[in-house]
Design goal:
The chain has six helices and five strands, in the order βαβαβαβαβαα. Strand 4, helix 4 and strand 5 form a beta-alpha-beta unit. The protein is globular. It has a single domain, classed as Rossmann fold, CATH 3.40.50. With about 160 residues, it is α/β, with parallel strands linked by helices. It binds 4'-phosphopantetheine. 4'-phosphopantetheine binds next to strand 1 and helix 4.
Length: about 160
């Protein structure tokens, strides 16, 4: 039984995240979308809201779980007997940050491998922070996020 963890902020989850979940399900028996808050970012959605919205795009998928965690990712991975950590690599700009994290996680827990997956070409320009900004400024994000996420963004920003 191979368990992969796909960690991130998912604030909000985008079509790019969904694409990565689909690809991760092809690699592992079970995928845990693990939502953590990056301390340096100001969150829009609560820790619980992001995972619920992402799960809504995979109705009836028994091999997908969403959870939130606090503390170190490697400790969460160890507690779930996960052997893979999946991260998306969109552009060269992502690489340095991702390499640093992957090597630090390896230092902390050598048995866990980080694998980088490329999203579909038409999703490589997507990021949660851009989606947040465009939505905040009244732009149309309906092609970039699922309908429940678009609705939640609208409600959040209206309130
Ligand atoms: O989507 P993000 O914001 O790039 O995700 C970053 C995340 C949540 C994967 C990273 O900040 C993380 O793993 N946080 C948990 C705390 C931790 O383990 N920090 C050390 C990372 S080397």
């Amino acid at each position: 039984m191979r368990t992969a963890i796909y960690p991130g902020s998912f604030d909000p989850p985008t079509r790019g995240h969904e694409d990565l979940v689909r690809r991760s399900l092809n690699l592992a028996d079970e995928v845990i979308v693990a939502v953590a808050r990056n301390g340096t970012k100001q969150p829009l959605f609560s820790v619980a809201a992001g995972p619920e919205l992402l799960a809504a795009s995979f109705p009836g998928e028994p091999r997908l779980r969403v959870e939130s965690f606090e503390g170190l990712l490697v400790d969460f991975a160890r507690a779930r007997n996960a052997t893979l950590v999946v991260r998306g690599l969109r552009a060269i700009a992502d690489f340095e940050y991702e390499l640093q994290m992957a090597l630090m996680n390896r230092q902390l827990h050598p048995e866990i491998e980080t694998v980088f997956l490329m999203p579909a070409l038409d999703l490589t320009y997507l990021s949660s922070s851009l989606v947040r900004e465009v939505a905040r400024l009244g732009g149309d994000v309906s092609a970039l996020v699922s309908p429940p996420v678009a609705a939640a963004l609208k409600a959040k920003l209206a309130g």
